[in-house]
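Dear H.,

Thanks for agreeing to be a second pair of eyes. The structure we're designing against is below in token form, covering all 383 positions.
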């Protein structure tokens, strides 16, 4: 029995960590994406933590406008730019010039959101597009799980670096370096794009009856509470910057063991992965609430929250990557951004005004995700 279990674990691990690297283009996308997401994690943490010090309005405007600028403006514009102008050098120069926007007013949440979207969105678009183009049919679930895990480990490393840089007072230097990492990522991931009529294709892919749209929308609804609002909440409860960065960087350790299982679950069970991940999130949010009275439970609650997100991400990402088109990337970003905007609006306000209700909001959004991820059976036409 033990030998059989060991054999299954070995097979799952090979499918998750070895097979995806057999494709050269996929390996290139993963490695470049890792470096760029490391810079983005550092950049994001520093902006979130810094703006939290300027009060509710600064954080709220930043968190609401950031997904709006990315999903609705800069990701579609990236594909439009690459299909019409086809010059990665010109786009890189424009992005480098946009770094200066970060330093015009460090307390302006909307301006910082615009600058972040300008700098990061081209990489986001090309990273998703390239990896989707190189996914296989036989191992798609494991490839999506590794893709999600590579983002988690890089982003979490960036969170730790962000906490360290803020502790040392290296705000300006880290902003420049983090921005240059994402700009370099979009530059090296450039590939010619022949897509046209993306507007019509996006319209056909989006729709409330489409499972992919619902899953991405509700995933976008949950993600800000786990990513952008969590550092602000930690600041509100009194955690120092370095401790917050370390707490947020626990995700890679969990993902290391979770990725093979998540890939297998998505490959074999589909929607079950999302519902199991939602259950882990429910328990995690309950423990976050209890940790207000028992602080030592915070690490366990974060572990469960990261486990839930680790199960949901491959399902959400993989359903769009299998389409292998720029229209699918745009559609996913719009669906995710549509969920992120109200979540940021409520999440940031509650984090500042009523931190005790933060886990209650997490429970509510997770319940909506579980409900939204249940497959809808089409009604059979009456004869």
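And this is the sequence the design step returned. I haven't edited it by hand at all.
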């Amino acid at each position: 029995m033990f030998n059989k279990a060991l054999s299954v674990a070995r097979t799952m691990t090979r499918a998750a960590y070895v097979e995806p690297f057999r494709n050269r283009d996929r390996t290139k996308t993963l490695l470049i994406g890792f470096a760029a997401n490391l810079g983005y994690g550092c950049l994001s943490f520093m902006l979130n933590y810094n703006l939290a010090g300027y009060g509710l309005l600064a954080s709220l405007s930043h968190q609401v406008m950031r997904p709006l600028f990315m999903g609705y403006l800069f990701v579609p514009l990236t594909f439009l730019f690459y299909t019409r102008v086809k010059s990665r050098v010109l786009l890189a120069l424009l992005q480098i010039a946009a770094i200066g926007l970060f330093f015009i007013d460090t307390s302006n949440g909307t301006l910082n959101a615009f600058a972040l979207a300008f700098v990061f969105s081209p990489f986001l678009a090309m990273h998703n597009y390239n990896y989707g183009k190189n996914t296989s049919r036989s191992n798609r679930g494991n490839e999506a799980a590794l893709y999600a895990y590579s983002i988690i480990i890089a982003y979490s490393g960036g969170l730790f670096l962000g906490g360290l840089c803020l502790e040392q007072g290296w705000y300006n230097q880290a902003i420049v370096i983090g921005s240059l990492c994402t700009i370099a990522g979009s530059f090296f991931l450039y590939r010619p794009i022949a897509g046209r009529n993306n507007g019509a294709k996006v319209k056909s892919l989006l729709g409330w009856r489409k499972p992919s749209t619902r899953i991405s929308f509700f995933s976008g609804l949950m993600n800000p509470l786990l990513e952008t609002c969590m550092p602000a909440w930690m600041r509100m409860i009194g955690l120092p910057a370095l401790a917050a960065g370390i707490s947020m960087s626990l995700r890679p350790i969990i993902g290391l063991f979770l990725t093979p299982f998540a890939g297998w679950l998505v490959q074999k069970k589909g929607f079950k992965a999302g519902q199991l991940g939602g259950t882990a999130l429910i328990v995690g949010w309950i423990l976050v609430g209890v940790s207000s009275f028992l602080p030592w439970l915070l690490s366990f609650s974060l572990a469960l929250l990261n486990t839930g997100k680790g199960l949901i991400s491959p399902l959400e990402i993989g359903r769009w990557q299998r389409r292998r088109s720029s229209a699918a990337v745009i559609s996913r970003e719009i669906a995710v951004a549509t969920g992120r905007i109200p979540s940021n609006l409520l999440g940031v306000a509650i984090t500042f005004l009523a931190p005790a209700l933060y886990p209650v909001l997490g429970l509510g959004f997770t319940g909506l995700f579980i409900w939204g991820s249940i497959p809808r059976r089409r009604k059979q036409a009456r004869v």
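Two observations from my side: The chain has a mean pLDDT of 82. The chain has 16 helices and no strands.

Warmly,
E.
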